[in-house]
Design goal:
The structure is a single chain. The protein is 54% helix and 0% strand. The chain has one domain. It has seven helices and no strands. The model has no long low-confidence stretch (mean pLDDT 84). By secondary structure, the protein is an all-alpha fold.
């Protein structure tokens, strides 16, 4: 009995496949793409949101923002890892439309747009929560203890909401700090490798 065989890599085909065929209709990268496409990046004060008439054309901020949101959802904290993913991961290749920015461009985008990134991350989290897209799975536990309807967990005050918003802001700031630390660590390791 023979094994299931893959396609021959050297076989030419009459109609080449498109990248679109590799991404399912309900893949989260489609949400990221549509969400970023509807944003007004100039109103959010992203650097280079308007194209300049002179010089080498930069990457569009929307493309780099898509890459960062993808990294946020998939726990990719390093600019170098995002660079690698843009060349090998089909979801990122589809999302970036085969663009492959280098790690320095990715890191500089984050450094130049920290305040705008915080606004976008906060809004994206709010959108995902309202659409119930990620996490918060339902758990059912059989037991005899019941909590009252107006328990501390179920009611909200201004103070509790402010505390929760500050927690979200701390998480976003921590994420951005972690990205900076990963980039510094990688560049230090790279420097040591070339030096030694």
């Amino acid at each position: 009995m023979s094994y299931i065989q893959g396609e021959d890599r050297n076989q030419t085909i009459l109609f080449p496949e498109s990248i679109e065929e590799y991404i399912d209709k309900d893949n989260p990268v489609r949400i990221i793409n549509e969400y970023i496409n509807q944003l007004d990046l100039e109103a959010l004060h992203f650097a280079r949101a308007t194209d300049s008439k002179t010089g080498r054309p930069p990457y569009h901020p929307a493309d780099l923002l898509k890459l960062y949101l993808y990294g946020y959802l998939n726990h990719i904290r390093s600019s170098r890892r995002l660079e690698t993913e843009s060349g090998r991961n089909l979801e990122v290749i589809w999302l970036m439309r085969k663009l492959r920015p280098d790690f320095k461009t990715i890191a500089d985008f984050r450094k130049d747009n920290k305040k705008a990134l915080v606004k976008v991350f906060r809004d994206f989290i709010r959108l995902c929560n309202s659409w119930q897209l990620f996490g918060k799975e339902l758990l059912a536990i059989d037991g005899s203890k019941f909590r009252a309807c107006n328990a501390k967990r179920n009611n909200y005050s201004q103070k509790k909401l402010a505390r929760h918003l500050s927690y979200i802001n701390e998480k976003i700031a921590g994420y951005l700090q972690e990205l900076d630390e990963c980039d510094q660590l990688e560049s230090h390791d790279l420097f040591q490798r070339y030096r030694g």
